Amino acid sequence: MRGKSRKEKDFMQLYTPVHENFERFCKARVYGDMEYKDLMHDTIIIAYEKFESLDSPKAFLHFLFGISIRVLANSNRKQRILYLKDHSKANNVEDESTRADRNEEVDLLHKALSKLPDNQREAIVLFEISGFSIVEIAELQEAGVSAVKQRLARGRKALLDDLKQTDSQPLKKMEL
Q1: CATH for 102-176, options being 1.10.10.10, 3.40.50.2300, 1.25.40.20, 3.10.450.50
Q2: How far apart are CA 89 and CA 97, in angstroms?
Q3: Residues 27-57: tens digit of each pLDDT
């Protein structure tokens, strides 16, 4: 068996340090839409195939996020087509195997995130979880800086409203 190619070594040298950040992004971004490991897998394959087009090693994480956003958008388009063909229950299947490693608060946050429009969810995950700047998010989302700021503000407000409502539901049940 021959050793790793130069391309493989270079790719892994850039991927290994960003793996955890990339995994966190994928988990938060796809909650309820698809399995995060599928998104990671598809993104890594495409990134490896297009590795030569990477302008700068410093942009590698940005490169991965951009690819994953496009992969997810394509997946969502396919799901909408399936949904229109009366496969409505397929989108509501949850992967119970991943629940053991989540605490209740993280699960509530992911559920609340999944209710946001894609562009708001993406902006919040990139900014709050992955640490991207507003300018970088604007580049990734192909939007203006003011649009990203508005998405963040609206997304935060919607998250807060949803989490407040979720938190008060057990109290409402007890009052009845």
Answers
A1: 1.10.10.10
A2: 19
A3: 887 766 678 888 899 999 999 999 999 988 8
